[in-house]
Every structure is written in structure tokens, then in C-alpha cells.
Design brief:
Helix 6 crosses helix 10 and helix 11 packs across helix 12. The strands form 4 sheets. Strands 12, 16, 17, 18, 19, 20 and 21 form a 7-stranded mixed β-sheet that branches. It is elongated, with a radius of gyration of 30 Å. Strand 5 and strand 6 form a beta hairpin. By secondary structure, the chain is of the alpha+beta class. Helices cover 37% and strands 22% of the residues. It has 3 domains: 219 residues, Rossmann fold (3-Layer(aba) Sandwich), CATH 3.40.50.620; 78 residues, Uridine Diphospho-n-acetylenolpyruvylglucosamine Reductase, domain 3; 113 residues, no CATH class.
Length: 431
């Protein structure tokens, strides 16, 4: 059994092998430790006790501790309550255990205890994943199987190795291992697939593993291409994501998933959510839908925009010189000189009524355009193509229902600077 670890690990990196004590993970630890000097890498082990199998689980952790101590391999130990997480978040025990396990992996990396985590997933595991996802109605991504190098941090050196080859390696090297009793029962879906379904398929297609592996690899190439293409219609900023339309549904779905992840949604989204977002393409400007975890998608002219809804309330401030916090924005009102008028928004201070305030828009607001002509504020903002989601928090200068200025956009004809102006004010946003 030969694996080129240099394709996954750089010289002098420290890799923690995720070690359960089972044959596969023990084989991976043994192989990587035996080849550490050849590839100039450092090997440690990491064990997560999931709190699922009671004394048997604790026994496995004690086995791992004893083996690593005798072998002189540093060991990181973590414990997790998978049953509690499953109950609290309405997950299967398998899902909860996986989430907690990977949380421990990334804790170890973020705490600088290692550079990467190596798991013992092998070719048979990959076949199971592809079939499992297909039976659940997956898209292309799910049918690509297990990532060999996930996020540059989780690596799977055995992913092209058959389980039979690992079993042979274990016999040749005679290292100890423990057996997880749950792998021998059909209570869990994957185990039933492994123990009942796949053996029957192999009777008809003896080389089904190689065929499925090729299938997954072909789909991965296609998916990688579509993901890269989707980036051409997607733009990301700190607080939002925009998808330019029209675009093909295959690109839109991948761009939508990227948008959701950008806004912190890594689970709970389903095809129905992606379809709902895509339906906005045929809707009127300003139409919106709610997506998981507080994300709102809205049709804005030639884009679908995704952003997190906020609970920021509108506020009212007196109109005065200075710098102010207004909802989530920083604004300023300052004196200006005629020589400063090349760019920006400027008001004639002597034309501003005493009851003027800074506030958000209200029903009935009107605005007299520069040069004349009065419109409702809503219609004016529509003409200026200001997105609906931005209008409610937009600071305006107003006297009762008459809008005198809109920060970042325009000044009313009522308070414009002209030849007779003596006192000039500038309104601006502060970065």
C-alpha cells in the first residue's frame, strides 16, 4: 500500500490523525507515523469521545491513550455529548456526533495544535456516501462523494484505497485495534447500506466500487466547473450577496448556496429554498422571500440580493452640526465653503426650517427635485433605483412631510445652494 502524502501535506506540517481505535484509523496512524520522516511531516493523534456507547466508548478512548503512550505519539483528547446535541437540535445521533467531531477538529486547528486533520475514510466509505446521497435525492454535489481534501484542512489519504487493502495492511503490520459494535448492526441507515445493500449489488457488479468512483470523479469535475462559472454571476460584500440575472438554474443554485454560506447559513437550507429564490426572477421588483436563519432574498432590478434581516428601529435626531450614529450608519453635518462645492451634497443653512430633523421615511413624504417638480419620496427613490430594503433605514432631512435632503442621494430644490447663499452645510456619510 503506497500513498503519496506530499500531495496532501507540506513539509514540516503537523497532522493530527482522527483516531477512534478502529482498524481503519489505526492503520492510517500506523502508515503516516511510519512514513513521517520520508515526507518530513509531524504526526500526532486526536480522539473524540462522543458519549454515545457508554462504557464501550470510554474503553476505546482508554485503548487509544494506551497505544499512543507506548508508541510515543502525542494525543489530543476531546469529549462531546452527542445525545444532548441530537435532542436539542432535532438531529439524528449520527448527525450530532459528526458535527461535534468536526467542531473538535477545527478547534484543534484554530488552537494551533496541528495544521491539518487526517481521517481514515476509504474507497468503500466513498461508495456508501454516493449511494446514500443518491437514494436521498441529492444533486450533483452530493453524488461527488467525500472530498479528498476538504477546505485545505481535512485530508483523507485513504480515499482511493479499498477496505480490503487496509485489512491486508493491518494483518501485515500486526497493530492492535478495537471493534465498534455499532458497525455490526443495521440500526443505522449507513450500516444497513453497508451490510445489506452493497453486498447484493456486488453480486451483480463485482467492480461496482471502481465504477462509482469514476462516476463521482466525473461529476466532481462538472460540479467544479459550474461552481467556478457561478462566481461570474455572484458578487459578495460584507453584509450581502448579489446574483445577476438572467442566469442558468444550475449557476443560480450554486450561487445561492455560496450566498447563504457567505451570510453564515451552512445548514438547514433545502432545494425548496433555492427554488423559491430562483422564482424571484419572474417576480416584480421589490418582491422578497424569507430564507433560513434570518436571510432575506429580494428582487432588485437585474439582481437577486441576499442579506440578513436586522431589527434596527428607525430613529429621529435633531438637525445640527456634528457627527451622529443613525441606525447602523455614521453621518455628519458640517460647514462648507464655496470652494468645496465640486462634489457632495450641500444645503443653504438659512433655508432650513427650525423644526427640521433627521429621520427615516414616512408615509406621505414628498420631495421637490433639483430644478423643480415634486414627487412622493417613494416614487423618487424608485426613479433613482434605490433598493427597497435600503429605503427604511435611509437617513433623510425633513420638515414635517417635506423632505429637504436624502443622505448620499440628493438635496431638495427648496434648500439648494444658489448665488445668494451665505451659510453652506454639507451632509455626508462617514466610512
Amino acid at each position: 500500500m503506497k500513498i503519496d502524502l506530499s500531495k496532501l501535506i507540506r513539509p514540516n506540517e503537523t497532522v493530527a490523525v482522527a483516531l477512534s481505535g478502529g482498524r481503519d484509523s489505526m492503520a492510517l496512524l500506523h502508515y503516516m507515523n511510519a512514513n513521517a520522516k520520508k515526507f518530513h511531516i509531524n504526526i500526532i493523534a486526536l480522539n473524540v469521545e462522543h458519549g454515545i456507547r457508554g462504557q464501550e466508548s470510554l474503553r476505546d478512548t482508554e485503548f487509544v491513550k494506551d497505544y499512543c503512550k507506548k508508541a510515543g505519539i502525542p494525543l489530543l483528547l476531546y469529549s462531546a455529548d452527542s445525545l444532548k446535541k441530537a435532542e436539542e437540535e432535532k438531529l439524528s445521533v449520527e448527525q450530532a456526533a459528526r458535527l461535534l467531531r468536526y467542531q473538535c477538529f477545527y478547534d484543534a486547528i484554530n488552537d494551533k495544535k496541528c495544521d491539518k486533520i487526517a481521517t481514515a475514510h476509504h474507497l468503500d466509505d466513498n461508495v456508501e456516501s454516493v449511494l446514500f446521497n443518491l437514494f436521498r435525492g441529492t444533486g450533483i454535489k452530493g453524488a461527488t462523494g467525500i472530498e479528498k481534501d476538504f477546505d485545505g484542512k481535512i485530508i483523507r489519504p485513504f480515499l482511493s484505497i479499498n477496505k480490503s487493502d487496509i485489512e491486508e495492511y493491518a494483518k501485515e503490520n500486526s497493530f492492535p485495534f478495537v471493534t465498534d459494535s455499532t458497525n455490526l448492526c443495521c440500526d443505522y441507515t449507513r450500516n444497513a447500506l453497508r451490510l445489506k445493500v452493497i453486498p447484493e449489488i456486488k453480486k451483480l457488479f463485482p467492480k461496482m466500487q471502481d465504477g462509482i468512483a469514476r462516476f463521482a470523479e466525473i461529476l466532481k469535475e462538472d460540479d467544479d466547473y459550474l461552481v467556478n462559472e457561478s462566481k461570474k454571476v455572484l458578487s459578495l460584500s460584507e453584509a450581502k450577496a448579489e446574483i445577476t440575472i438572467p442566469c442558468h438554474p444550475a449557476l443560480f443554485s450554486r450561487a445561492t448556496i455560496s450566498a447563504l454560506k457567505h451570510l453564515g447559513v451552512y445548514k438547514d437550507y433545502e432545494k425548496v429554498h433555492i427554488d423559491a429564490a430562483y422564482s424571484l426572477i419572474d417576480k416584480n421588483n421589490g418582491t422578497s422571500i424569507n430564507l433560513p436563519q434570518g436571510v432575506l432574498a429580494i428582487r432588485e432590478y437585474d439582481k437577486i440580493v441576499f442579506f440578513l434581516k436586522t431589527d434596527g428601529d428607525s430613529c429621529t435626531l435633531p438637525f445640527a452640526l456634528g457627527e451622529f450614529s443613525f441606525n447602523d450608519k455614521k453621518i455628519a453635518i458640517k460647514k462648507a465653503k464655496p470652494i468645496d462645492l465640486k462634489s457632495g451634497l450641500f444645503l443653504d443653512a438659512d433655508k432650513i426650517p427650525k423644526d427640521t430633523v433627521i429621520r427615516t421615511k414616512k408615509t406621505g413624504d414628498t420631495f421637490e427635485k433639483f430644478g423643480g417638480g415634486t414627487k412622493s419620496l417613494g416614487d423618487y427613490l424608485t426613479d433613482k433605483k434605490i433598493p427597497l430594503r435600503e429605503r427604511d433605514n435611509l437617513p433623510i432631512v425633513a420638515s414635517e412631510s417635506e423632505v429637504l435632503a436624502i443622505f448620499g442621494i440628493a438635496v431638495s430644490n427648496k434648500v439648494k445652494v444658489d448665488e445668494s447663499t451665505k451659510n453652506i452645510l454639507q451632509i455626508t456619510f462617514i466610512d
